[in-house]
Amino acid sequence: MKIASRLAAGTGALVLSLTLAACGGSEEAAEAGATPQEQAATATAGTSGDAAVDEAHNDADTTFAQMMIVHHEGAIEMSDLAVEKADSEEVRALAEDISAAQGPEIEQMTSWLEAWGEETMPMDHGGMDHGGMDHGGMDMDGMSQEEAMGHLEDQSGPDFDRRFLELMIAHHEGAVTMAEDELADGENPQALELAQKIIDDQQAEIAQMEQMLQNL
Predict the structure, then answer these.
(1) Does a structural domain hold residue 14?
(2) Which terminus of the chain faces fewer neighbouring Cβ atoms within 10 Å, N or C?
(3) Same domain, 65 and 37
(4) Entry pTM
(5) Are 70 and 35 in the same domain?
(6) Which InterPro entries match (predicted)?
(7) Same domain, 116 and 38
(8) Residue 74 belongs to what domain range?
(9) Residue 24: pLDDT band by 50, 70, 90 thresholds?
């Protein structure tokens, strides 16, 4: 009898514990004001990746995404060269960071354009390197992307590092100009958010590169 009583008491305690835990979860959900369906949706959203693309956009948003993709591709091309040729480990690390940051942004902007039903390339891109396009921010010290790459290929040692930093500063300044245009004229909230992030990130990198130039 004593053993049966202890088993019954233990079972009762376990049931009470589980009941209290369930009640606690229900109270938290109730305090959050969520229905069971909303709770399930929230749980799913937490594991489903990025939020859905907001399809509301205007011409400025489209142009920003199209041109910034090409601009980022240019930065990655320059950075990949610097990873191979840089004399300084600091410059090499910076180049790796730039490439790693801008690759995902290209994918993000490409997904927007596809969701918006827009071309992922500017209509007049046809075979031109992006330095040749008539758009603010695509010029580096008077050189197109192709010209800048050729110039960097000819450099070596500390001279390469110096020219890479100088040209990437100009390249970043162009990206800031393009992002500022988007903030002024765009309407898509996700594009506006990325534009502000580009301004913040690239201004910080400009300051970093200017300091690195002083130390060369």
Answers:
(1) yes
(2) N
(3) no
(4) 0.71
(5) no
(6) DUF305_CopM-like, Ferritin-like
(7) no
(8) 59-215
(9) very low
